[in-house]
Amino acid sequence: MGAIMTSAGRDYGLDDNHVWARPPAGGWTADDLDRLPNLPPHTELIDGSLVLVSPQTLFHALAMRLLENELLGQAPDHLTVLREMTVRLDSRNRPEPDVLVVRTDAVTGPSQTWFDPADVLLAVEVVSEDSVDRDREVKPRKYAGAGIPHYWRVEQKDGLPVVYVYELDPATGTYAVNGIHHDQLKLSVPFPIGIDLRASGRRDRPGSQGV
Length: 211
Known about the structure:
By secondary structure, the chain is an alpha+beta fold. The chain has helices at about 60-75, 130-145; strands spanning about 5, 45, 50, 80-85, 85, 100-105, 115, 120-125, 150-155, 160-170, 175-180, 185, 195. The strands form 4 sheets. A 6-stranded mixed sheet has the order 4-6-8-9-10-11. A 3-stranded antiparallel sheet has the order 1-3-2, with no helix packed on it. A two-stranded parallel sheet has the order 5-7. Helix 2 (about 130-145) links the parallel strand 8 and strand 9. The longest helix is centred in the first third of the chain and has 17 residues, at about 60-75. It is globular, with a radius of gyration of 17 Å.
């Protein structure tokens, strides 16, 4: 999701005199995301570099809505589901998964801007045209290194989502493929989940697909 920061100032309503902030030696830090002025919404930090989001496609929006609604409807009470919240992996990495499942007791209040990876059970990335390498290679490596136990990568095929499911192997500290799901997503971990992937774009009730 997104593109490395460039001079796209006019798209964000900035005048011709605006100068983008110059990164310090060694790059930006996770805390800088909360302090830098005029950052576009959903800016991520990857290896000390700011990453901006590209215009969202309809597929991306519908896939996020489907997964957020269904996960929220099926998650147990001790877990909650959020979209587009950052995770502070370390001082140089603060990505923003499209959908997150986190421990409910990790929610601290309305001003919260990030979660600790220890509180994240599942990170979901919906692949965009300019995020393929990050979502297939960079982010799963970083999420696994931070100990996030489950990762889903969502790609488009014939207009519908295909979900690539990964689970952390504690012996290697890397993700192992736990299935590639077309049409129906049925899992027993991180909790019992059943999602009709063909429902993307329909206004079904959250959790209506069942297990």
